[in-house]
Design a protein that fits this description.
The chain is α/β, with parallel strands linked by helices and about 270 residues long. It has one domain: Rossmann fold. Helix content is about 45%, strand content about 15%. The chain has an eight-stranded mixed β-sheet with strand order 1-4-5-3-6-2-7-8, with helices on both faces. Helix 4 crosses helix 5. Bound molecules: adenosine-5'-triphosphate (ATP) and magnesium ion (MG).
């Protein structure tokens, strides 16, 4: 256990160092050429048909601006501003216990970010024991995200694009040994390569719940910050407390979302 803690701490320090040492971008002709190449890499990602009605049934409502999208848009903007302020790119979505609304929130954030034409975003389904993003989108990616993380398939062949600027890396089915994959250095390297190749402004990771197994704990070293989703009338205070402390040991806690709270004024969460 101590060895695991030490390994996680080392990985976190390395990632923090990388962020600090990242070069400040400068405009140049070379950059113009790089931009064209980057645009092309995004254009080369396969697209897929989004079944809007099915998404709305699952409370994913942010493809267009609307009253129901507004709470998620506010969340998107708050998250984005805070991440920018800190120079963060990678956001984990987790919760104390299952069925809190993690995937719903992650999909709404990704599609809401997609309406920002000047941003590029990604959603990666790392709830590898019980992946759901592909079910939300009623699609089957050509390969599973586990193949990308193992280095067997390139992200360019696996990810699917919605619009010009949002990429989804989804699973086809559950993985046998999620913790091994989420803890591995190879996974960290693959994610670094994806980030370097596609230069997304935001990478969202849909993760499992913290208090049910060690998978989220194993992965958090790879992100800059985490959003904790709680569910009204379901999540207990002590569960949130333990979850928040666990997450804070490994990354920055960006905030907590109270999902499905039904007794508030118009400006409250989601229903
Ligand atoms: N605000 C809400 N109001 C009502 N139902 C909701 C709300 N948010 C999510 N749900 C529903 O709750 C269920 C669980 O949501 P979701 O799959 O997003 O949670 P999750 O935390 O990702 O679950 P899991 O732990 O299984 O990954 C879904 O049926 C979803 O439609
Ligand atoms: Mg989920």
């Amino acid at each position: 256990m101590e060895k695991l803690q030490a390994a996680l701490e080392n990985a976190r320090k390395t990632r923090a160092g990388k962020l600090r040492d990242a070069p400040v971008p400068r405009r140049s002709r070379q950059q113009g050429e790089d931009c064209d190449a980057l645009d092309q890499r995004w254009q080369d990602l396969q697209t897929f048909e989004v079944a809007d009605r099915a998404l709305i049934k699952r409370r994913v409502v942010t493809r267009q601006a609307s009253a129901s999208a507004t709470p998620f848009d506010i969340l998107r903007t708050k998250v984005l501003l805070q991440m920018r302020q800190n120079g963060w790119k990678r956001l984990a979505i987790t919760s104390p216990m299952p069925k809190s609304g993690k995937t719903t929130t992650a999909c709404n954030l990704a599609l809401g970010l997609g309406r920002q034409r000047d941003l590029r975003s990604m959603l990666l389904d790392l709830d590898l024991r019980d992946p759901a993003v592909h079910q939300f989108f009623q699609t089957r990616p050509p390969h599973t995200i586990g193949d990308v993380l193992r280095g067997d398939v390139d992200f360019s062949e696996q990810a699917l694009r919605v619009g010009d600027n949002v990429a989804f890396s989804m699973a086809q089915s559950a993985e046998d040994d999620p913790t091994r994959l989420l803890l591995s250095n190879e996974t960290a390297d693959v994610l670094d390569r994806i980030e370097a190749t596609y230069q997304p402004d935001v990478m969202i990771f849909d993760l499992p719940s913290v208090l049910v197994n060690d998978e989220t704990r194993a992965f958090l070293k790879n992100v800059d910050c985490a959003l904790i989703i709680t569910r009204a009338n379901t999540t207990r205070y002590n569960q949130l407390d333990v979850c928040e402390r666990e997450v804070a040991e490994h990354t920055n806690v960006l905030g907590t979302v109270l999902n499905a709270y039904r007794y508030a004024d118009n400006n409250t969460a989601t229903d």
